[in-house]
């Protein structure tokens, strides 16, 4: 597999004189077409790492290689076209007065010819299923719809990598699911690489690999299965599934429930069949 | 401190082609010492309503009464100034409002602005920073070097430094990691327990169930339902139809109910759910 992103010994300090590193000697590789989640508590360095990759901030030391090219001050504008970023708060990333203007904005900046721009806007909006909102004002949309428009703006630019920086954290469960679904589809269609910074267990469980960060360092890189089996989820910045909490508390109350992971319906089945109908 | 809305209407840019009505005949009562939740979708009018709570917006018609102060469409800035001190609003992503050189100066700014001496303001700032869990060694740091979660705590300390009687929280845990989210809600619970009337704007029904004693459901600028969370969440169809959903505990109880388990009332918190299941398993 081809490496689309290589991070080598990346370091970043918010203040040069201090000995506190927001990102401390971080190295990892991402392959083309991979879905990688970066998890960790607030302040672990996840978002800083993402901003360094997108060239929004410059690293103190270390190397970022995007699609074979080392990121420098000179080529940051060129390389940034390969990396699209969706931020947490949809309201902070709108510039256009209509949905279609907003999707077109990035392409205007990159000097895409008008004809092609129109075609790409339409295709991107169709892709995220927001075609009917084309002429609407972004402010009038729901959170999930806004994030879909933000994703359309990125899809239209045809990046190689899309970074979701807690892009679903402000959405309700329905909106969250919509976004994940859309990202999965565009990933398949365009062979995109996805880097998702998240606290959501379901979102993280979809990834090929998970990078766990703590205090600016990489604590470990593992597959979702291996990670979820061996860790206190809250401690690595994830939510514990509701069913796991219920099962644990019922065990504490003396009910006999086997020590394994149940989904909510599995737990409901077990409780009903084994404990409630006697 | 109590707040009440009497037939409050609000129209953005009235008498222009952009005129758009955001609130319709809002009657709302926030009892002194209560923990009131305000829920609704984007565009439901939550943010507009919120800005009436401390007179950032004046009603187009109707009145808002905050403690002793009555806010009317033609209220003068001077008359409503006390409201700004008494009602502290923690806006979404409050960390974006930090501005000063050091954490301590930032938090002390508010009280100083309301006439407290620099020394006293810093004493208050230290106390509030400790309350929100910011330790002394961070006081002289720039707020912009802190992590997102810490920055938010500093911003909240800045609002608490005004000693508000009412604390308004607009999606205060958005973007925090799960552990930080729980810690933050516990902090608000502690502040509420010290006698501060609390108003929480949220789309997290679990937080409503866990913390609020009263809730209002807002839709398209109107209050469509209000009451105790325990009562409102019994109407699962209503909450689902309005795309707000129900707490996880209620949802889980529905799974059991679908399998045949009897519930006299649906639980809305995890502890109530666990208790009901334990009871049912032990006594059939």
TrEMBL record, chain A:
From the Swiss-Prot or TrEMBL record, state where the protein is found. Cell membrane
- Presence of the UniProt keyword Chaperone in the record: no
One GO cellular component, as annotated:
ATP-binding cassette (ABC) transporter complex
| CDD domains with a match to the protein in the record | ABC_cobalt_CbiO_domain1
Show which residues constitute the signal peptide. Answer: none
Q: Which Pfam families match?
A: ABC_tran
Q: Which PANTHER family does the record associate with it?
A: ENERGY-COUPLING FACTOR TRANSPORTER ATP-BINDING PROTEIN ECFA1, HEAVY METAL TRANSPORTER
What is the name attached to this protein's record? Energy-coupling factor transporter ATPase
Q: What is the lineage of its organism?
A: Bacteria, Bacillati, Bacillota, Bacilli, Lactobacillales
From TrEMBL, chain B:
Mostly located where? Answer: membrane
Top-rank taxon, per record: Bacteria
- EC class, as a word, reads translocase
**What EC number(s) does its UniProt record assign?**
7.-.-.-
Give the CC-aspect GO terms: ATP-binding cassette (ABC) transporter complex
Q: What does this protein do?
A: ATP-binding (A) component of a common energy-coupling factor (ECF) ABC-transporter complex.
Q: Which protein are we looking at?
A: Energy-coupling factor transporter ATP-binding protein EcfA2
This protein's species is Pseudolactococcus chungangensis
């Amino acid at each position: 597999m081809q490496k689309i992103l290589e991070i080598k010994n990346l370091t970043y300090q918010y203040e040069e004189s201090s000995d506190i590193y927001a990102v401390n000697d971080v190295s990892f590789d991402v392959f083309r077409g991979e879905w990688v989640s970066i998890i960790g508590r607030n302040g672990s360095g996840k978002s800083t790492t993402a901003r360094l990759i997108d060239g929004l901030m410059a690293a103190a030391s270390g190397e970022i290689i995007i699609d074979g090219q080392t990121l420098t001050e000179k080529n940051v504008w060129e390389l940034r076209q390969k990396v699209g970023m969706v931020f947490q708060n949809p309201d902070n990333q709108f510039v256009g007065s209509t949905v279609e203007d907003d999707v077109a904005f990035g392409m205007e900046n990159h000097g895409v010819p008008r004809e092609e721009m129109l075609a790409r806007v339409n295709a991107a909006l169709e892709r995220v299923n927001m075609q009917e909102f084309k002429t609407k004002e972004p402010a009038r949309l729901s959170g999930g719809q806004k994030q879909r428009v933000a994703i359309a703006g990125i899809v239209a630019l045809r990046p190689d990598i899309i970074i979701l920086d807690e892009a679903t954290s402000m959405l309700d469960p329905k909106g969250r699911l919509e976004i994940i679904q859309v990202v999965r589809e565009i990933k398949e269609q365009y062979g995109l690489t996805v880097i998702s910074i998240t606290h959501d267990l379901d979102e993280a469980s979809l990834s090929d690999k998970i990078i766990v960060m703590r205090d600016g360092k990489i604590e470990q890189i593992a597959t979702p299965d291996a990670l979820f089996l061996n860790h206190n989820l809250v401690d690595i910045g994830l939510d514990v599934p509701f069913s796991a909490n219920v099962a644990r508390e019922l065990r504490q109350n003396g009910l006999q429930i086997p020590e394994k992971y149940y989904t909510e319906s599995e737990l409901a089945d077990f409780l009903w069949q084994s404990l409630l109908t006697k | 401190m109590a707040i009440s809305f009497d037939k409050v209407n609000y129209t953005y840019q009235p008498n222009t082609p952009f005129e758009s009505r955001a609130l319709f005949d809002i009657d709302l009562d926030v009892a002194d010492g209560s923990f009131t939740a305000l829920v609704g979708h984007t565009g439901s009018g939550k943010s507009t309503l919120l800005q009436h709570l401390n007179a950032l917006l004046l009603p187009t018609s109707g009145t808002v009464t905050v403690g002793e102060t009555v806010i009317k469409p033609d209220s003068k800035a001077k008359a409503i100034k006390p409201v700004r001190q008494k009602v502290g609003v923690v806006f979404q992503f409050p960390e974006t409002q930090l501005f000063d050189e050091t954490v301590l100066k930032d938090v002390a700014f508010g009280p100083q602005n309301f006439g407290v001496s620099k020394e006293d303001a810093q004493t208050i700032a230290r106390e509030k920073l400790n309350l929100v869990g910011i330790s002394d060694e961070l006081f002289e740091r720039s707020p912009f070097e802190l992590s997102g979660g810490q920055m938010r705590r500093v911003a909240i300390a800045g609002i608490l430094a005004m000693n508000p009687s009412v604390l308004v929280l607009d999606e205060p845990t958005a973007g925090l990691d799960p552990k930080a989210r729980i810690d933050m809600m516990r902090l608000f619970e502690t502040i509420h327990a010290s006698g501060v009337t609390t108003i929480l704007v949220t789309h997290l029904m679990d937080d409503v169930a866990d913390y609020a004693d009263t809730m209002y459901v807002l839709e398209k600028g109107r209050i469509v339902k209000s009451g105790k969370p325990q009562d409102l969440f019994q109407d699962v169809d209503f909450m689902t139809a309005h795309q707000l959903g129900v707490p996880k505990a209620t949802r889980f109880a529905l799974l059991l109910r679908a399998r045949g388990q009897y519930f006299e009332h649906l639980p809305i918190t995890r502890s109530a759910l666990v208790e009901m299941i334990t009871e049912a398993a032990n006594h059939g």
